[in-house]
């Protein structure tokens, strides 16, 4: 009879330490076979040199090597998750599948399908009767999820500040920042060092020229965060986004650092991420539809030539263009500039926020659906706790406020100030008046 195993399914938690679900699996009754699935449903939408896929693949190989040092490994598959599981249950005597929760809409639907399938599969158990394969998931990528932080009547918060206040009232460092050590339980790993592997070319990809930068969350960065985070010419951000997105770092450890340094602004940024995560869980329609439904009545111009100028950073508005060129070149854009380019697309050009959200989804190393949708709807005025529609960033005065010496602009636009740099594609005043008219007609 084949050895009874539990599976731990890595997804957005690509680390071997302080990992809730992995820790639970390793403390279970049966040896653990770790797996990762390159989901073809997701990969088919991505460019073949996608930097995030390269980053994931390299991270997985590092994890695989560490596990092989302990006589085990990490099985790596490619395909639709449901098809992969249909094969796994025929190849191995699986008792349970254990994983960490994902709150995005596609992920929830995928997990329901997998759980339903596993419930129909009978495997040899310790009793005389065969039993269905269990599916267990745990909270790992956030401190609070789902209904952990809600109003007194049980309704979700749709404004950030009261959510943050309730979050802090609910927070208990001793329990909520508990560490989940995994390595000391590696003796319960499945003893097989030659599990299936995949090269980048096996999954139809090639190594990207864009690297995901290491995060830096030093005491000095945290303490200076409030003073430096709004100035794109200063490297004052943590570059933590991709690492939280893919789980190469524990959110509990990052919260612990923020609290240790008593930095309210840095702490609040981490809570914003949880705010948007619970919004998309409570309101899944917001992945496609405006949270404030009347904003779906806006008559977007959706001019494709103008969208192309925005994408390529040739609008003639220097801070907008610098941001888009930084994004295209590095997969990153400074947060202050993200607000400006989003506002410019939606309000100056009257292009649907979904177009911008989709472009960011393609390009951003730290793309998270919940935060990306939340921030784009904020910029468009259509989301929770959104900027009012009549708040329209002036892309000229934003330069004076945040890049007065034009260091950021000149870094990304070498032709700035020459005849080859394009004229402004729209007049700010005229675009503002047009936006106010169109928005007012839609929402009043």
UniProtKB/TrEMBL annotation:
Source organism superkingdom: Bacteria
Cofactors named for this entry: FAD; (6R)-5,10-methylene-5,6,7,8-tetrahydrofolate
Name of a matching Pfam family: DNA_photolyase
Entry annotated with the keyword Ligase: no
Cofactor note: Binds 1 FAD per subunit.
PROSITE patterns recorded: DNA_PHOTOLYASES_1_2, PHR_CRY_ALPHA_BETA
Sites where the protein binds FAD: 225, 266, 269-276
Any one GO biological process: nucleobase-containing compound metabolic process
SUPFAM superfamilies documented for this protein: Cryptochrome/photolyase FAD-binding domain, Cryptochrome/photolyase, N-terminal domain
InterPro entries: Crypto/Photolyase_FAD-like_sf (IPR036134), Crypto/Photolyase_N_sf (IPR036155), Cryptochr/Photolyase_FAD-bd (IPR005101), Cryptochrome/DNA_photolyase_1 (IPR002081), DNA_photolyase_1_CS_C (IPR018394), DNA_photolyase_N (IPR006050), Rossmann-like_a/b/a_fold (IPR014729)
Keywords: Chromophore, FAD, Flavoprotein, Lyase
Domain Photolyase/cryptochrome alpha/beta: 4-133
Similarity section: Belongs to the DNA photolyase family.
Protein name: Deoxyribodipyrimidine photo-lyase
Species of origin: Patiriisocius marinus
